[in-house]
Amino acid sequence: MSLEFELQKYPREIKLKDKTKCRLRPLRKDDEQKFHEFFLAVPEAERMFIKHRVTEPAVIHDWCANIDLGRNLPLLASMDGKFVGAATLHQQLGGWKRHIGRVSVLVLPSHRGRGLARALVSEILGIARGVGLERVEAEFIGEQDAAMKMFALLGFSNLMRLEDYVKDMQAITHDYVLMGLDLRTDEEYAGMG
Description:
By secondary structure, the protein is α+β, with helices and mostly antiparallel strands. It has helices spanning 3-7, 32-40, 44-47, 57-65, 116-130, 145-153, 183-190, and strands spanning 12-15, 21-26, 72-79, 82-91, 100-107, 135-141, 157-167, 173-182. The longest helix is centred in the middle third of the chain and has 15 residues, at 116-130.
């Protein structure tokens, strides 16, 4: 299948655990302001774990001006006209990791506990399967226990943990955790139920 086929599913509405509705769709060029506001609403303590300087308007401008959904596909969740969550599928289009996607997810604290992160990651996994990826991985900082638990519930397993391996934006070291999911095996198990 193709990315174009996968993207035809969006925009779409999903219902969360508390019955609230949320609209999902990929990032567009005209999302720059709202996307920046989303990152500004993330608590500073959590922004420390994001790899990019998302509070800088130039970073968000660059992302929105140079959208390449084949390489980085941000799937945004909106409620009442504001972004409340985002999950991204990162892909290498060539090279030795071209069959592996990387998944990341971020939900604003005010919208956690409703199943939104899980729904976003599930959508991204569906897209990953649809574009023919064989594996996906997710990176964490050791203290992100709740996120790692949610990924484990979706079938991800720990691939490695390196102590004091990464540094946050304030140069404080943290453990690096890599989790992975084999999409081929996952699909086979799904058919056994």
